[in-house]
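Q&A log
Question type: sequence-to-structure
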Amino acid sequence: MVIDTVDNYIIGIGHPRCGTGYTASLLQKWGKDVGHEYHHQDGIVSWMIASNRSSVPWGDGVPIIKPNFKCFTIARSPIDAIPSMIPEASNLYSFGFRAQVIWQELGIDITNEKNVPQTKIGMSLGIWALWMKIVLNRSSEHIFRIDRDEDLPLLAAFLGLEPILNTDNIHRNSRPKIRNNNFKIENFSKFPVPLAKITLNMCLKLGYQEDHAKLIAIYEKCNEI
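Response status: OK
Response body:
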């Protein structure tokens, strides 16, 4: 398949453990042959596509996102996602790939304590914010929040599809047995100002005002934001 020349090819991009598997299953239920991390006839949903690389740790990459693609961002409440994102930092393939892309795209070394606190909150929430900044640079035309029912018909309209709003039987690629709830959200107060600004900004841009309010309420340097 030569995807560069396909009109309306669907590309969904997000962050690991934040709903890409669910979104692929949703689009399949809506009648589209969209793969999770692999190119299918109608599209692909993969967090790794944000890299614009042809070689990625799992599945298929894509050289560059074309204007004739239907590209959108997949989002999830970052605070709710922290327990699922913490274990992802211990996956060397996932972490190393994101570290390379973030350095290439933003010039930020996420292994440096001065940039990203080497704590559970830093390595989950902080890296989420940097990665989502890259995602929005690729696909800011439409944002689909998987945890907001009102976003279902909006995504369908964006893609020109007829939505099936009952999502009870849609596969969710959850991993409840490896979630890590042993973290303190209060450690966000230790984020360096530049990272805190990006994190708070991503909460607002993605439509999570509640998360923004919770985080800024505990930030020790809020007068510098």
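Response note: The first strand starts at residue 9 and ends at 13.
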